[in-house]
Structures are given as C-alpha cells and as structure tokens.
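Human:
Class, as today's exercise, you are to examine the entry below, and be ready to discuss the fold:
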Amino acid sequence: QVQLVESGGGLVQPGGSLRLSCAASGSIGSMYVMGWYRQAPGNQRELVASIGTGRNPDYGASIKGRFTISRDNGKNMVSLQMNSMTPEDTAVYYCFLRELPNLYWGQGTQVTVSS
C-alpha cells in the first residue's frame, strides 16, 4: 500500500504564491507518475500538473505557465510551486501517484485565493 501526505495549503492573496508538497511512502517502484488534481465546489476534478519518471511535466490548460511541478525521486516527493494565483485557483488540491495498475490519492489540501 502507498500513502500520500500533502502539505502547504492555505490562504493566499490574489497575485501571491503558494507551494504544495506531497510525500509518498510505502511500496513504490521506480516507474510512476505523481502530480496534482484540484476540485472546486460544483466543478469536476481537473488535472493541475503531473510528472512521470524520466518525462517532462504535463500541465492543465488553465495553468498557463503559472505553476511549476518538480519531483525528487530519491524522496518520492513532488512539489507544486504556484505563482500569480487568482481566485479561480481556489480548490481542494489532491496529490496522486499512479503506478499501473494502481492509483493512489492524498487526502486533499485546501487552497483559497482571496483578498
């Protein structure tokens, strides 16, 4: 079993920055994808960013170059640097790890962008 622990959510003003981190523990191989989805009230869960072993990152269309995902393979950790944030970024952010055929989720962390 794999456990994912997220940290770094909170309240930020429009235009500000926030950094999320997610640490994975348990039985993990070397080939997997880690990343983040988010879900705002009344909306479907959408991809924010993901990064696979040895691959370039993928970003959701709404991110538009504002966020950067990075990965530390030695620590099985992924981070998401969020800049130029807007109220539309307000959501619960979920870390995920996909190691086929399994998919694991973190508990979610609230991010609120408001003045």
Remarks:
- The CA atoms of residues 43 and 91 lie 9 Å apart.
- The radius of gyration is 13 Å.
- The mean pLDDT is 95.
- The chain is about 0% helix and 55% strand.
